[in-house]
Amino acid sequence: MTxxxxxxxxxxxxxxGLRAISIAMxxxxxxxxxxxxxxxxxxxxxxxxxxxxxxDLGSLGVRVFFVISGFLITKLLIEEQARTGTISLxxxxxxxxxxIFPAFAFVVGAIAIAGHFGWIKLRVGDVFHALxxxxxxxxxxxxxxxxxxxxxxxxxxYLVWPALxxxxxxxxxxxxxxATMLVTPIVKVATWKFFPDHRAGIGETFQTVAxxxxxxxxxxxxxxxxxxxxxxARAQSHGAAPIVLFATAVAxxxxxxxxxxxxxxxxxxxxxxxALCIDACARNPGSLVGRFLEQKPLVFAGxxxxxxxxxQQPFLYRDNHAWWASFPANLGFVLGAALVSYYLVxxxxxxxxxxxxxxxxxxxxxxxxAPEGAx
Length: 375
What we know:
Elements: H1 4-9, H2 15-31, H3 57-84, H4 89-116, H5 126-131, H6 143-146, H7 149-194, H8 206-227, H9 230-237, H10 241-254, H11 259-283, H12 288-293, H13 296-303, H14 305-315, H15 329-359
């Protein structure tokens, strides 16, 4: 068994590759309509789901990001707690601030400037809700900033979860996370049935999406325990396990034909399948799937996923018929803008963070990048 220090510095195989697949699903969903044909394909839905005219893989990509985030953040926090006896909120928010805010402020600022000069049409409150990380409660919004609702969810998770881990300790936090998995579907059904004016927020407001992050947190909290079960370890170590689990997540996602199923069992089973897929991929780095996820292009795309997510929305707007917002030019602009954000904003600030940590005499933490939302 490895020591906490070794575990903390150990890179988890496959997660960058999973991020790459997730951001590709988001880009594919958003690019639909910017091409000369609908390449993601329509899927008929019943009228009782607030998900538009077709189910796209973009929302599944967001769900994968959330589960990964809940897993990674919880893993880092419980390892710190086991190593030091506590969790430093100051260090946690210091690291998160340098990871998230610089590129976020850069992109939101650029979009706000474009709105000021009339190049795009923002709506009242868009910039305010973006900068205060409350976009998931602001539904009458422009497309160009609408995607930051998922970053708002992440930030709200960061605000609550570390403190809960401190005061509840891992065992109490596990109970809280499991309870969240059980209660959130009830909240979604109740919102749909009794508060029809708030249906647009289902799947975005924190109380209706917290179960996704909680599922990742539960995985981190019980992983060592369930790994001790020989039957579970054998099943998860099978080379086909990641494929079967990911296919199950896709199937559950696309079976949301009725709110009664989707809001109760469907989304819960999707979240659990994603969590188990993460575990199966991480424990099988030498398998065919593991080697595929560790390919350098996928790893780089996963590393770049936050930048891609931040910049993609203005270029992938199906109602914008400008040449730069049409395929394939828009995809080129997304990749170019993401590289600018990553190399000119994100990396320099991450370097500054490390310098400040060294100057303060803090041990350098492992460079684990949590996915800050998508879609």
